């Protein structure tokens, strides 16, 4: 009677995609301040994996990819300007 339909419930893969997208955003933002050449490419790969899984969190996954790209450019610029290590 009040049971949810199986189509309304999120699958485990969609939940994992959302977590991966969130992890990618977090790693990208950390990479701006600490070794952008190491952290941000891995974060971009995680974002691509979240996009490949797709599902309900597809906009979050796309946002994580855009955030990673912007953070890569900003992080490399900050590292070069401040003479900090890139890798």
Feature tags:
single chain; 87 residues; mainly alpha
Compact description:
The protein is an all-alpha fold and about 90 residues long. The protein is built from three helices and no strands.
DSSP strand content = under 5%
- Quickly count the domains: 1
First-to-last CA distance? 58 Å
Share of helix among residues?
over 70%
Mean pLDDT across all amino acids: 90
Largest sheet features: none
Figure out the total of helices: 3
Describe the fold and architecture.
The chain contains 3 helices and no strands. By secondary structure, the protein is an all-alpha fold. It has one domain. About 30% of the residues are buried. The model has no long low-confidence stretch (mean pLDDT about 90).
Topology:
Blueprint: H1 12-33, H2 36-53, H3 58-81
